[in-house]
Amino acid sequence: QISVFANKIVSESERVFYAGAPSKRTLFVYIPEGVQAIEIKDKSLIINYTGRPGITAVKEFTANVNLTGSVPTSPGLKRLTITAQDDKTQISSS
């Protein structure tokens, strides 16, 4: 489930960026239980999560474009807006 929502964010960010500013896209992603933190850094979406009891892991998903903004970590269905800017895409919850 983590890979599904992270890959959706990355692919939509790339699609919006290449369409050019001020392109915007709204998407819905499901954040599963166990997600502890989501960090957006340069071209990466880094997710810290707890899998099986006591096992914490980190997954990094890399985009071809610069990313900025934030993604909520609470579990459930989330509505995100991805907006193209001149040199990056902005990700925000809406």
Rg: 13 Å
Distance between the termini: 21 Å
Sheet of most strands: 4 strands, mixed
Shape: elongated
What does this structure look like?
With 94 residues, this protein is an alpha+beta fold. It contains 1 helix and 7 strands; from the N terminus they run αβββββββ. 19% of the residues lie in helices and 49% in strands. The strands form 2 sheets. The protein has a 4-stranded mixed sheet with strand order 1-6-7-5, with helices on one face. Strands 2-3-4 form a 3-stranded antiparallel sheet, with helices on one face. β3 (44-50) and β4 form a beta hairpin. The longest helix has 18 residues, at 2-19. It is elongated, with a radius of gyration of 13 Å. The mean pLDDT is 94.
Can I get a quick summary?
The chain is of the alpha+beta class. Helices cover 19% and strands 49% of the residues.
Task: Offer a few descriptive terms.
4-stranded mixed β-sheet; alpha+beta; 7 strands; elongated; 49% strand; 94 residues
SSE layout and pairing:
Blueprint: H1 2-19, E1 24-31, E2 35-41, E3 44-50, E4 56-62, E5 67-69, E6 76-84, E7 89-93
Parallel strand pairs: 5-7
Antiparallel strand pairs: 1-6, 2-3, 3-4, 6-7
